[in-house]
Amino acid sequence: MSELNEPNDLLSYEKEYWNLSYQHIAGIDEVGRGCLFGDVVAAAVILPVGLILEGVNDSKKLSAKKRDQLYDAIMEQAISVGIGRVDAAMIDKINIKQATRLAMKMALEQLKIQPDFLLVDAEKVDVSIPQLAVIKGDAASQSIAAASIVAKVTRDRLCQGEWNALYPEYGIGIHKGYATKMHREQIQLLGPTPMHRKSFMRNLFIEEQTLF
Where in the numbering of this chain does the RNase H type-2 domain appear (predicted)? Predict the structure, then answer.
């Protein structure tokens, strides 16, 4: 563990609220918001006061190997980690923004320790805990970055394991449910699965039709 006063830009938000006597700050982020397939997955991570995890950054900027390494470090050193998942049917029912917020709330509810402050990546969670929405928070806060890594690794493993085994012909393990050319072609060829977001399908095919 590094000293609290060691310079680290990713701890600027945490330091501000640690100095206000908040001890259990949870970083919250999601992954899969823009996918055509599968759950939106959120993570909430409480790290010890003053801990610096070298290499932690926005999960999108890291290689899969580095994310896996950091995931293990986060899971080992975090005070508590919670995961929330909202499936395609619920996304279609309540829309992706509300589903994202729900997944974040579910992740919070999985924490074994009640946080006293939340740092959230550009969202508001429907709880009474004091919170701050941080724009591009996964590149500005270590706690949010840690949550982004946990959420990303969790969802990628679902894509490459369970979900790919259910629907191997769609290549979920390769594109992770995003709207790649291969994925769109397989949807057109085979039709959507029960895990595809039907509300996203309408937009997808409308966009494709406008290209011709």
Answer: 23-212
User: How many Å from the N-terminal Cα to the C-terminal Cα in the chain?
Assistant: 57
**Euclidean distance between CA atoms 203 and 197, whole angstroms:** 11
| pLDDT of amino acid 59 | 85
Angle between helices 198-209 and 181-190 (to 10 degrees): 100
126 assigned binding-site residue: no
Is 30 annotated among the ligand-binding residues?
A: yes
DSSP summary character for residue 11: G
- Average per-residue pLDDT for the chain: 92
pTM for this model (two decimals): 0.92
Residue 46 confidence (pLDDT) above 90: yes
Tens of pLDDT, residues 147-182:
999 999 999 999 999 999 999 999 999 999 999 999
| Cβ 14 vs Cβ 135: under 8 Å | no
Q: How far is CA 174 from CA 2, 45, 142, 182, 195, in A?
A: 38, 27, 28, 10, 16
* Whole-angstrom Cα Rg for the chain: 18
Q: Measured between alpha carbons, how far is residue 122 from residues 8, 29, 168, 210 in Å?
A: 21, 9, 34, 31
